[in-house]
Design a protein that fits this description.
With 289 residues, chain A is α/β, with parallel strands linked by helices. Chain A has 2 domains: 21-121 and 262-286, Rossmann fold (3-Layer(aba) Sandwich); 123-260, NAD(P)-binding Rossmann-like Domain (Rossmann fold, 3-Layer(aba) Sandwich). In chain A, 33% of the residues lie in helices and 19% in strands. Chain A is globular and about 60 Å long.
Chain lengths: 289, 289
C-alpha cells in the first residue's frame, strides 16, 4: 500500500494524544471525504481534543465493525456515507423520523444505555439554510426533483418542517412511490403527488438529482414556469453556481446552493455528538477544502 | 489559505484527509499513550499521510473489534498495549517466536492473505539499543529481574539474540518458571536458571520491575557485587536516571535507560508496518513528549 502525501496544512491541525476522542467516518472509497477537512480545523480552533478519522469500510464489513467501534469509550460517534447509508439501518436500535422517512442514516452514536441511535442531517442542513434566509416552511408547497438518497433526505426534512404539499419526481417512478409511501406513513397530514417536474405555482423547488455537475447536463426541470416568488434549492456542489441556479437567479428567484446545505448541516451533527455549537460561516472560514 | 495564519507552536501535526491511513493504538486507559506523540510528528515530517489514533479498548471488547478493524483498507495495523497484550494472542493466525516466548504481543497487522500476524518489539528495542552501544549479545550471560510483561519480552529477545545464559528472578517464582518453560521450548540451547537476583560475574543485568519509579523504592537488586564490566539495563522511564542507573554508573558500568529502549523499538515497528525507516535519534528529536 502506498499512501498519498498529505496536502500542506494551513489552519491548525489537531494534535492527537492519549486523551483524543474520535469520530470515525465510515465509507468507501474514502478519497473524497470532506469531513476531516471541515471538522478537524474546527476542533483545533476551539481547543476540542477530538479528530474525525476516515475508515475505509464496505457494506459487508459494516455489521462486524460498527457496534464494537461505537462502544469504545473514546469513540464519540460515526459519520456514515456511501455505500453504507442504507446498510447501517439494520444495525440501529433507534432512529429518528427523518431516518425512517429518508430510508437512510448518516450519523450514529451509542447512547448511555448502549443502544445505537441513528440520525440523518442531509435534509436538516437544507431546511436550516432555507429558514436562515427567511423561507417559511410551515404550510409551503414544495417540489423535490430526484428521489435518490439526498432527495429522500430533503423530502423527509421538509415534511418534518411542516410543508403542506410535497410533489415528487424521479426518472424511476418506483423510487418516488417508495418515498411517498414512507412520507404518508410518518406524516399523515401531508399532501403528496408524483409526476413530471413542474415548478409552476410552488413556493420551493429543489434539484436533488446530479444534473448540473457536467457542463452538458440538461436542466433538471424547465425554468419557463418558474415564478420569482419560488425559491430554488440545489444539491450539486460543483460548480458552485449550476446552470439551474444561474437561471433561477436570472428570473429573480431566491436560491440555496449545494455548499450552503453542506455547511448548514455540520452544526446539527455537532449537536448530535454533544459538541459545542458554531455557525456555518465559521465552519466555512476554517475548512481546509 | 491564509498566509498570515500563525505557525504551529511545535512540530508539524499530520493533516487528516480522505487519503489518510491509520494505525490504531488499542488499550485502556489511553491517557498515557505516547505513540501518537512519537509516530505522528515523524509521519508529518516525512510527508507520510498516516496517523496513529488511540482507541480505548478493554479486553472484553478486543475480540469483537480487532479482526474487523484490521481488515479495513486504510488501517495499516494496530499497536497493542495494556491490558490487551496477552488477550490478543488468541486472535492471531501467526506470531513470531518473540511473541510466543514473551507470551504477549504488541503489534498486529493483516497480511495479504487476510491473516492476523502478531509481533513483539519491547525486547527488540532493548537489544537493538545495547548492540548499537557495542554490547555483544552472542554468548553473553544475562540476568533479567522481573518476569512480568516487559521482562518476558526482554528475555525473549535476548534469547533470540543468542545469549548463552539467561538467569531469571521474580518475586513470584511461578512467573519466572512459566517464562523459563517457554524459553526452553523455543531456545533449546539456552541455559536458564531461576533464583534471587545476583548480578555477580554477569555480562548484563536488566531491571524489568517497576522498582525505581518512586523515590522510596528499594534497588531491584544489590549493586555491591556489580562489576564495572557488567552492563546494566533499565526499563523504568521516569526518572530518566533511576537510582539503579546512578549506582551502576558510579561503579563504572555501561548502562541503557528506559527511554533508550522506547525509541530503539520504534524503527522495528515502522518496518513491521512497511513504513520508511529512520533512526531513534530522529524520532526522539521530533517527538512531542
Amino acid at each position: 500500500m502506498n499512501s498519498a502525501a498529505p496536502a500542506p496544512a494551513s489552519a491548525p491541525a489537531p494534535r492527537i494524544d492519549g486523551n483524543t476522542q474520535v469520530i470515525v467516518h465510515l465509507g468507501w472509497p474514502t478519497h473524497s471525504f470532506k469531513s476531516p477537512l471541515i471538522y478537524n480545523p474546527y476542533f483545533a480552533a476551539h481547543g476540542i481534543n477530538m479528530a474525525v478519522v476516515p475508515l475505509a469500510c464496505t457494506a459487508d464489513q459494516l455489521g462486524g465493525l460498527l457496534p464494537s467501534l461505537l462502544r469504545l469509550r473514546n469513540v464519540r460517534g460515526a459519520l456514515i456515507t456511501m455505500p453504507l447509508k442504507v446498510a447501517v439501518l439494520e444495525l440501529l436500535d433507534a432512529s429518528s423520523t427523518a431516518v425512517k422517512v429518508a430510508g437512510a442514516c448518516n450519523a450514529v452514536r451509542c447512547d448511555p444505555q448502549g443502544r445505537l441511535v441513528g440520525e440523518q442531517f442531509d435534509g436538516e442542513g437544507f431546511v436550516r439554510g432555507l429558514r436562515r434566509q427567511g423561507f417559511r416552511t410551515e404550510g409551503a408547497r414544495a417540489l423535490v426533483v430526484g428521489s435518490g438518497g439526498v432527495g429522500c433526505a430533503i423530502a423527509a426534512s421538509l415534511a418534518g418542517a411542516g410543508v403542506a404539499e410535497l410533489h415528487l419526481s424521479d426518472a424511476d417512478p418506483l423510487c418516488a412511490q417508495r418515498l411517498s409511501t414512507r412520507l404518508a406513513a410518518h406524516h399523515p397530514g401531508l399532501q403528496t403527488s408524483i409526476g413530471p417536474p413542474d415548478p409552476a405555482g410552488l413556493d420551493l423547488v429543489v434539484n436533488a438529482t446530479p444534473l448540473g455537475m457536467r457542463a452538458d447536463d440538461p436542466l433538471p426541470f424547465s425554468v419557463d414556469q418558474l415564478s420569482p416568488s419560488t425559491w430554488v434549492g440545489e444539491v450539486v456542489l460543483q460548480p458552485p453556481v449550476t446552470p439551474l441556479l444561474a437561471a433561477a437567479k436570472a428570473r429573480g428567484c431566491r436560491t440555496q446552493a449545494g455548499v450552503d446545505m453542506l455547511f448548514e448541516q455540520i452544526p446539527a451533527y455537532l449537536e448530535f455528538f454533544d459538541l459545542p455549537g458554531t455557525t456555518p460561516e465559521e465552519l466555512r472560514r476554517l475548512a481546509q477544502l
